[in-house]
Amino acid sequence: MKRVVVKVGSAVLTKGGIINKERFSNLVSFVAAISQKYQTILVTSGAIATGATVLPNISNKTTAGKQALAAVGQAKLINNYQEEFKNFGITVAQILLTADDFDSIRHSENALNAVNFLLDNGVLPIVNENDSVIVDEILRGDNDSLSAQVAHYFDADILVILSDIKGYYDKDPNKYPNANLQKVVSELSIGELEQEHSPNDAFATGGIVTKLRAANYLLSNDKMMFLASGFELDGAKDFLLNGVHNSGTLFSKE
């Protein structure tokens, strides 16, 4: 593998409705470590939660409120990343995308050219959806779909989704203590892709089904996805840096 996309969701970055500093710092340290081995693109959520700390009186329950919080929060979020990555000598660049950008050959090629140039010059691209103009992900996907498109169109070998779950189980581990983690999944059924969303965080809009759809999209394009805990990063770090698969689920046809 040469190029990796790392996606982190709101459920990992936030605690009690605000960005958790320890988790944020751990994420930055993790990305900095794998950037020593791979060209790395970070897809991040968290703009709405960050905006809520600036404008606490605006509700995130309405679409307009979410858009406003995202617009305010994105600036602060990218600044937080800039300051944290400085500690590792890493320069970051902000790239705001929408699904429509990938529907346009010209837009997607322009974005790819920009990303390639940044990576070739040692800059870490940080991608988020432009939530102030497009609302699909803030309503449904928490950037799961966007990150899959980024991995595909930006020629990544694998998408790593850091989540509030340790991987994909054969049944809901919150309901069934005997649920087993599936270490490798090569295909997904229609039934698995049509489950109800089940986000656990007030600022998260996805759930396991949006991650499975992201995995299915990548499988259909001969790409891999790795789903792992964003709270305990050793599993993802071992997999990427040491080639050891102790935890997490790998979605791969190989």
Describe the protein's architecture and organization.
This protein is α/β, with parallel strands linked by helices and 254 residues long. The chain has a single domain (3-251), classed as Acetylglutamate kinase-like (Carbamate kinase), CATH 3.40.1160.10. Helix content is 44%, strand content 20%. It is built from 11 helices and 12 strands. The protein has helices at residues 10-13, 21-34, 47-54, 63-86, 99-103, 105-120, 136-141, 144-153, 190-193, 208-220, 234-242, and strands at 3-8, 14-15, 18-19, 39-44, 91-97, 123-129, 158-163, 168-169, 181-182, 184-185, 224-229, 249-251. Strands 5-6-4-1-7-11-12-10 form an 8-stranded mixed sheet, with helices on both faces. A two-stranded antiparallel sheet has the order 2-3. Strand 2 and strand 3 (18-19) form a beta hairpin. The two termini are 14 Å apart. The model is unreliable at 197-205 (pLDDT under 50).
The CATH H-level superfamily is: Acetylglutamate kinase-like
- CATH class membership: Alpha Beta
| Tally of separate helices | 11
Largest sheet: 8 strands, mixed
What CATH calls the topology is Carbamate kinase
Give the termini separation. 14 Å
| Shape annotation | globular
Total count of domains: 1
- Strand content is 15-25%
Number of strands: 12
**Average of per-residue pLDDT values:** 89
Q: Quickly give the structural class.
A: alpha/beta
Compute the CA-based radius of gyration. 17 Å
Strand order of the largest sheet: 5-6-4-1-7-11-12-10
H/E order of the elements?
A: EHEEHEHHEHHEHHEEEEHHEHE
Low-confidence stretches: 197-205
As a percent range, the share of helical residues equals 40-55%
CATH architecture: 3-Layer(aba) Sandwich
